[in-house]
Write a structure and sequence with these properties.
Number of domains: 1
Radius of gyration: 13 Å
GO molecular function: structural constituent of ribosome
Keywords: Ribonucleoprotein, Ribosomal protein
InterPro entries: Ribosomal_uL29, Ribosomal_uL29_CS, Ribosomal_uL29_sf
Structural class: mainly alpha
Family: Belongs to the universal ribosomal protein uL29 family.
Strand content: under 5%
Order of helices and strands: HHH
Largest sheet: none
Shape: elongated
GO cellular component, one term: ribonucleoprotein complex
Number of helices: 3
Length: 67
Amino acid sequence: MFMKIAEIREINTKELVERIEAEVAGYNQMVLNHSISPLDNPAQIKQLRRTIARMKSELRQRELNNK
């Protein structure tokens, strides 16, 4: 669920796009569940949001390097 940048760089681009979509869906579900009943560890939301940002940053960097 929570990945470091080194792990993200090892993933190929197609799989990275799929992982971003899956993580965003999971994030949205987690936020919805948290609004209904509090999570045991609300810091998970912050960690997941940052992981998604790392993935999107890596994807954008790959796009810029290919041009």
